[in-house]
Amino acid sequence: MEMKLRAKDDSIVRVKELLEHYAAKQKLMETAKNVLAELESVIASLSSAYMRKLENTPVLDSALLKLGIMKTLDSPVSNYEILVQELMKELSTMRDVEITTYAGELLAARVRLEQMKIAEGKRVAALGRALEQLDESKLNLKKAIDAGVSLSSAINTYQVQISKRQAELEGAHETEQIACATLASLQDELCSIRAKVLSAQAGEVKAIESRRKLPADINKMALSADEAKATSKMARELASKARLEMEQAKAGLSTALSRIQAAEKEAEAARASEAMALAGLKALSGSEGEDGKVSISIPFEEYSALYDAGHEAVKVSDKKVGVTLIELKEAAANEAEGQDKLSIALKELEELQKALEAAQKKADDSQAAKLSIESELRKWRADHDHWRKTGSNPSSVNTSATQSPRFLNGKTSHTKAFSHSFQGKTVAGIDPSLAEFLTLKVPISEQVLPHSFHGKPATGLSPSLDLSAIKVPSLEKEAGPTSRLDVVKTSKPKKLSLFARVVSMMVRKKKKPVN
Predict the structure, then answer these.
(1) Residue 496 carries which DSSP code?
(2) What are residue 409's phi and psi, to 5 degrees?
(3) All residues at 6 or more sequence positions from 181 whose CB lies less than 8 Å from its CB, including other chains
(4) Which ranges of 291-394 does DSSP label H, i.e. alpha helix?
(5) Lesser CB count within 10 Å: N end or C end of the chain?
(6) Rounded to whole angstroms, how far apart are CA atoms 234 and 349?
(7) Tens digits of per-residue pLDDT, 15-56?
(8) For position 22, what pLDDT does the model report?
(9) Does the structure show a pLDDT above 50 at 90?
(10) Residue 266: closest CA among 225, 309, 228
(11) Contact call for residues 419 and 496 (beta carbons, < 8 A)
(12) Over the range 397-432, which residues count as b (16 or more CB within 10 Å of their CB) and which as e?
């Protein structure tokens, strides 16, 4: 489009130049015509001047003067004739010279006129050629405009085709993204299936080991449960004894508190009696000091006896209080000891209960693992029987499509279309690394399969499992002792999985030429 616009601009500029050149040629033609008219006027003026010069020449005047002089002088006839002849000769020579000069000038003017006519003809021819070029440029401009219109229509058609191709490429890119997503999901599914197979193998080995060890474990658990029950009984007895001791200690504590309260009351009574005695003595001594006439006297022995009795009562009460405090401390210590024994017994009982629960859980887990392995074996056996009877594995695509979580976002229809379109076809042009990845085999233990599987080809049991690595007893007898993971080659062709079909579809799409 830019080239067309540039060509159009160039043609317009060229037309303008040709028009300017034509105008210049027109001006030159006008100037040439003016020059020709001037030359013609000059020639006419020259011819008239020549005639006038011939008529009014000084030679004739001199000749006439000479003739007049001769006539006036009356010279002889011969002299006159000689003079006339000389004058005629001079006149003829002058006329010849002037005629030749004027003829040369006229020829030169005619030559210049012819040259100007030739130049004018050339100019006219150049102008004609310029007009022809102008017509050709107009035709070229029309052709360029028509070509620009056709080119714009072609550009529009090409843009429509490009938009269509872009839409097709976007659709192909979307399908490629879907295929990549399905490929990634299938790879994740294959990894998850391998991990599940490995975990199933590990669980099966653990289940076999646990099944072997299950009776001894059950006996040990039973013994430990009996021991736990016995220890729990002992702990309960100890707890009951501790509770009885705590109750007895609480009763002793209450009696000791009552004794302490009684001793405190007795001490308070003794202190009150002592205070009263001291107050009486003070009153007696004061009354004796105030009134020397009246006096009450108490013997010293009685006073000392009363004083000793008061002190002994205080000491007895203090001893009783100390004894009760000691008994209270012993009861508190006994109560704390009983509480500690009770907590220890409860902890031992909880630990024994936890151990019993753990043993029961292990037994339940081993039983559940055993049941799950048996159900998986029954399922694999049913799939194998179905494949052996029908010769196909219809559950491979469905199981692989439903196990992956990426198929839940609206893309299952594409994968089903891919699986139906590439079912039963061979894979061509796959990279060797992809082929090695597709033919990876997952080793499975012999004890995972039932006895009816031995000696039979194990392809088609699961959509993503390759059970060709199963131990066959008949081949072992012929080949000697081998490992548990010997590979048995089967003669039947293997059916392609969904992953292989998707990869083959991607390879064929890349090889397909774009229209």
Answers:
(1) P
(2) -110, 35
(3) 406, 411
(4) 300-390
(5) C
(6) 10
(7) 666 667 667 766 766 776 776 677 677 667 766 766 666 555
(8) 64
(9) yes
(10) 309
(11) no
(12) bebbbebbeebeeebeebbeebbeebeeeebeeeee
Contact 423, 190 (CB under 8 A): no
Q: Nearest to residue 448, comparing CAs of 209, 201, 213?
A: 201
Q: Of 229, 230, 245, 235, whose CA–CA distance to 345 is shortest? A: 235
Q: How far is CA 69 from CA 62, 75, 357, in A?
A: 10, 9, 184
Share of the chain above pLDDT 90, in %: 0
DSSP character for 495? P
Residue 383's alpha-carbon distances to 356, 450, 459, 463, 483, in angstroms, are 41, 13, 10, 10, 27
Of 329 and 480, the structure prediction assigns the larger pLDDT to 329
CA separation for the pair 125, 132 (Å, rounded):
10
Structure tokens at 218: 């059950």
CA distance 17 to 274: 154
Tokens of 147: 């070509």
* Angle (CA) 87 93 96, round 5°: 140
Task: Say how far apart CA 169 and CA 356 lie, in whole Å.
Answer: 67
**Helix, strand and coil in the chain, % to nearest 5:** 85, 0, 15
| pLDDT at position 312 | 78
Share of the chain above pLDDT 70, in %: 51
Element (H, E) at 35: helix 2-55
**Residue 489: predicted pLDDT:** 40
Tokens of 475: 């081949």
Span 208-221, mean pLDDT?
71
Whether the Cβ atoms of residue 192 and residue 400 lie closer than 8 Å to each other: no
Query: Measured at the alpha carbon of residue 321, what is the angle toward residues 315 and 322, in degrees to the nearest 5?
Result: 90
pLDDT bucket at 227, cuts 50 / 70 / 90: confident
Rounded distance between C-alpha atoms, residue 238 and residue 251, angstroms: 19
Residue 92 carries which side chain, given as an amino acid letter? S
Task: Give CA 312 to chain center in angstroms.
Answer: 100
Q: Under a CB-based contact definition with an 8 Å cutoff, are residues 339 and 242 in contact?
A: yes
